[in-house]
Automatic annotation (TrEMBL):
This is Marine proteobacterial sortase target protein. Residues 634-654 are annotated as: Disordered. It comes from Steroidobacter agaridevorans. The lineage of its organism: Bacteria, Pseudomonadati, Pseudomonadota, Gammaproteobacteria, Steroidobacterales. Residues 1-38 form the signal peptide. NCBIfam families: marine_srt_targ. Transmembrane segments: none annotated. Keywords: Signal. Pfam families: VIT (PF08487), VWA_3 (PF13768). Residues 338-508 form the VWFA domain.
Length: 698
């Protein structure tokens, strides 16, 4: 009997071990199941499929969309119309929803909805009211459209009740100021979106997330009044397909004189010169909207006036736009530099972007002098500093940094804030000029949180941003550089790295004009927007919009510091009238008010200032939207309406899945499951070892 008990003990232990292993496996499956569900939710949000299904499971094509951009440039002001044509090729009634970018400083003021020969003009309303009007029209079967601003450079169009075989055209109009740098003028038009990472978003496995889930409900990293949804910041992506989405462009430039060196670095163009400028269009008028469009030019007349001064009187006062090119007698900085390079290695930087970023950083390292100090910080889901604090730019340290940079790869999420705080909090040398060079596509959704950190932690450092990729977040990059008393450089191709980084180095070492002041005639009280004028670097003009309570006459005095004190007198009597100056001032003023959140302003106080201003000047803002409704019912009673998010074209060079949103972060639950699986493997190995030991002869 005792012998039988001894024989049973190993069997009992084996069964117990097997039972324990089975229970452990069941626990793991239960732990992994929600994670699998979460990953499925991500794919539902980010799928690039161009079809939807009705209640009976039948496939319905999403609306096909064509975009046509028409620009009219007069001097330094551009009036732009963006036409979006939605074609419903299915036999069902559909609603198209589309997130799209616009230039970050665009003053959006018009909406027209075209249905056949009918044109319905949109109206500016408070955002909640506009959405309510749209929803009511949508439910009543009326054709309607609404345009919301979700970020200063990110908008959303919804078009309801597009009938079978029908086409509805939405025309959105805006104004913007033409950029000027080193004697060249430039316009930039974004055509697609790099999906933006949202820190702090934890997938709730008990409730399915959709493209309409508000971001503010998922994370504290954005303000509570943020109305952007998952589908706005993380749009569906699909490969470029001209039969599904295409863009055409026509630009008419009235420069007042012949032009030269008209270039578009990323799109082939056709140029027809005129007496006062040029007419330009894309060589392929069905181009894929997969990267930002950029156009630059220079006047032939070398002795062009260095001053552009325009005015527009309204009931709200006299509005002024001034662009002035100061003298370019830069003084080189003799102080050694302390440069902190911060490079984005997140998943959105995969493909061509990480190649451009590495090349830009390597170029920056080559500009360092022996007396300089430096370090490199990379960030994705986590961040890492090559050196814990800046070290001397010795040959040994530079060689180590170059090896480090060559081995950088893109993966994971975009946890930018910890890397930014690390860079701004490193020990600072009093003998060196601290400069932070931030290399990123800025594909993030927590811009306000990042701007607050820059304002609070910048100190005496200067922040220079380098935008990378086919569709970077220009709003954050420009705003961060302006707040950081630096400049923004855009690199859209590996071929531009050398020239763009050389130009940046020139700006890093040679600020042209500091301590800029504008003195108006007695009795004139200007309300500036932006509220302050930062330091100028080589090739940069002074650009100011202001509202005056009464017309200004006399002389405006501009002063600043270069090699000494510099002053220039400008006559205000010859200001040219220009429509749109008031809207441009209001747009800049709204931008200042929205940025005041970083200085401690509350959501209620910002809303209380922005809303009446946007309604008064009839502009789209965070709190106002454009809505247009055709009051004639179109969709018959009983016919279902199928809502569909229209995918954005995958940015050129981005190494992401053919359709969908990649996993750019590793959720905590997934880390837990991976660890648990490793424990299971270890347990299995232990069980195997015990069995082998029992089989060995005693």
């Amino acid at each position: 009997m005792q012998r039988n008990n001894k024989q049973r003990q190993p069997r009992f232990r084996a069964k117990a071990e097997h039972s324990f292993a089975a229970l452990f496996c069941l626990w793991i499956l239960l732990a992994v199941a929600p994670i699998t569900q979460a990953q499925t939710v991500e794919q539902d949000i980010g799928s690039g499929s161009l079809t939807l299904r009705d209640d009976q499971g039948r496939a319905i094509d999403a609306p096909r969309m064509e975009t046509a951009v028409r620009m009219k440039v007069s001097g330094i002001v551009a009036r732009v119309e963006v036409s979006q044509r939605f074609h419903n090729e299915s036999d069902a009634w559909v609603e198209g929803v589309y997130a799209f970018p616009l230039p970050e400083h665009s003053a959006v003021d018009t909406l027209r909805m075209k249905i056949g020969e009918r044109i319905i003009v949109g109206e500016i309303r408070e955002k909640e009211q506009a959405q309510k009007i749209f929803e009511q029209a949508r439910q009543q079967g009326q054709r309607a459209s609404v345009v919301h601003q979700q970020r200063p450079n990110l908008f959303r169009t919804a078009v309801a009740n597009i009938g079978p075989g029908e086409t509805i055209e939405i025309v959105i109009g805006y104004l913007q100021i033409v950029d000027q740098d080193a004697g060249r003028y430039a316009l930039r038009f974004p055509l697609t979106i790099t999906p933006r990472y949202i820190p702090g978003v934890d997938v709730n496995t008990e409730a399915r997330l959709t493209s309409e889930t508000p971001i503010a409900a998922l994370t504290l990293a954005v303000p509570g009044d943020d109305t952007a949804t998952l589908g706005d910041l993380q749009p569906r992506l699909a490969h470029a397909h001209p039969q599904r989405q295409s863009v055409s462009m026509e630009i008419d430039i009235d420069a007042g004189a012949p032009m030269e060196h008209i270039t578009s670095p990323y799109h082939p163009i056709l140029v027809d010169a005129t007496e006062r400028g040029a007419q330009i269009k894309l060589r392929n008028q069905q181009s894929p909207p997969d990267r930002d469009f950029e156009l630059s030019w220079a006047p032939v007349v070398k002795s062009e006036p260095a001053i552009a001064l325009f005015r527009e009187p309204t009931d709200q006062g006299e509005h002024v736009l001034l662009m002035f090119m100061p003298p370019q007698e830069s003084r080189p900085i003799n102080t050694p530099r302390e440069v902190i390079f911060v490079i984005d290695t997140s998943g959105s930087m995969s493909g061509e972007s990480i190649n451009q970023a590495r090349a830009a950083l390597m170029n920056g390292l080559r500009t360092l002098q022996p007396a300089d100090r430096f370090t490199v910080i990379q960030f994705n889901s986590v961040h890492e500093a090559l050196f814990d604090e800046p070290v001397s730019a010795s040959e040994e340290n530079l060689s180590r940094a170059q090896r480090y940079v060559r081995n950088l790869h893109a993966t994971g999420g975009t946890e930018m804030l910890p890397a930014l705080l690390t860079a701004l909090s490193m020990p600072e040398s009093r003998e060196h000029l601290r400069q932070v060079i931030f290399i990123t596509d800025a594909a993030v959704g927590n811009e306000d949180q990042l701007m607050l950190a820059i304002r609070q932690q910048l100190g005496s450092a200067r922040l220079f941003t380098v935008g990378i990729g086919s569709a970077p977040n220009g709003h954050f990059l420009r705003n961060a550089a302006r707040t950081g008393r630096g400049t923004f450089t855009y690199i859209g191709s590996i071929d531009e790295v050398e020239s763009k980084m050389t130009a940046l180095l020139n700006k890093l070492t040679s600020p042209v004009l500091t301590d800029i002041e504008l003195n108006w005639p007695a009795g004139v009280v200007p309300e500036y927007a932006p509220a302050s004028i930062g330091d100028l670097y080589a090739g940069e003009p002074i650009v100011v919009t202001a509202r005056l309570q009464s017309p200004a006459k006399g002389t405006l005095s501009i002063s600043g510091r270069t090699n000494g004190t510099w002053t220039r007198q400008i006559s205000l009597n010859g200001m040219q009238p220009r429509t749109g100056v008031a809207s441009l001032w209001a747009r800049n003023r709204i931008g200042d008010l929205m940025d005041s959140r970083a200085n401690g302003a509350t959501d209620d106080s910002i809303r209380g200032s922005v809303l009446p201003l946007a309604l008064q000047y009839q502009l789209v803002s965070n709190y106002t939207s454009l809505v247009a409704v055709d009051r004639t019912p179109a969709r018959p009673d009983g016919e279902s309406l199928h809502s569909r998010r229209i995918p954005n074209t995958k940015p050129n060079g981005l190494d992401w899945p053919a359709e969908g949103v990649p996993s750019t972060a590793t959720p905590a639950q997934l880390n837990f499951a991976i660890g648990a699986l490793l424990l299971l493997a270890a347990l299995g190995w232990q069980l195997r070892e015990r069995r082998l030991q029992r089989r060995q002869p005693q």
